[in-house]
Amino acid sequence: MRLRAPRIAPLDPAMLDNEQVEALAPVMREGAEPLNIFLTLAHAPDALAAFLGWGNYVLSRRNALTPRQRELAILRTGFNCGSGYEFAQHSAIGLRSGISREEIEALKAGPGAGQWSALEHAILTACDQLHHDQFVADSTWAALAELGDKGRMDLVFTVGQYTQVSMMLNSFGVQLEGDQQPDPELDRR
User: Fold this and answer.
1) pLDDT digits (tens, 9 = 90+) for 159-178
2) InterPro entries attached here (predicted)?
């Protein structure tokens, strides 16, 4: 985690105004408080509502990436951006999406580590290229051909979304919930 305390504290769920409650409605679950990311973004309810609309597309079945492919891209992007919150949250989601703990460790070292399929290697390579150059090289684009045009677009959308999310989490100082701990490699800054 880059910050040990929030710069913008999450709102107290008991103190929300009507506009904040409405913006948070899509992430409210019976008997559970919203995650700190959402309680922090609720300081700007209109922005939160727009953010959730786009984020819901990226995380939905409308995204051409499989859940495993999507989570590989999100995890590599979160790691590249040094986002302890993002990496911790999506490590758990990744495990539910068919990524092993060993693969999560390997993807931290980059596309060359681990036993990736050719397509997964290309996905991780594209994540690194987008992070470092904001561009997918021609050879990587060609290696992603199996995804089709929509799948390649959705990969760029996913990396872009989670780069933005990581920037917000890091800059606002959003802290992990409860007893969650950041990955030790992302607790170095």
Assistant:
1) 999 999 999 999 999 999 98
2) AhpD-like, CMD-like
- With tokens 């390579």, the residue in question is 125
Q: Give the side-chain half-sphere CA count within 13 A for 95.
A: 8
pTM above 0.85, yes or no: yes
Structural domain boundaries, residue 124:
67-172
Q: Of 58, 76, 109, which marks where a domain is finished?
A: 58
User: The tokens of 160 are what?
Assistant: 């872009």
Q: How many CA atoms lie within 13 A of 47 on its CB side?
A: 11
Residue 102 sits in the same domain as residue 164:
yes
Q: Helix, strand, coil shares of the chain as percentages rounded to 5? A: 65, 0, 35
Rounded to 5°, the CA angle 80-73-137 comes to 80
Do residues 113 and 89 make contact, with C-beta atoms less than 8 angstroms apart? no
Same domain, 95 and 147: yes
> How far is the C-alpha of 106 from the C-alpha of 116, rounded, in Å?
10
Q: Give yes or no: residues 112 and 149 share one domain.
A: yes
**What's the pLDDT score for residue 114?**
82
Domain count, the chain: 2
DSSP for 82-117 reads T-HHHHHHHHHHHHHTT--HHHHHHHHT-TTSS---
Amino acid at 133: D
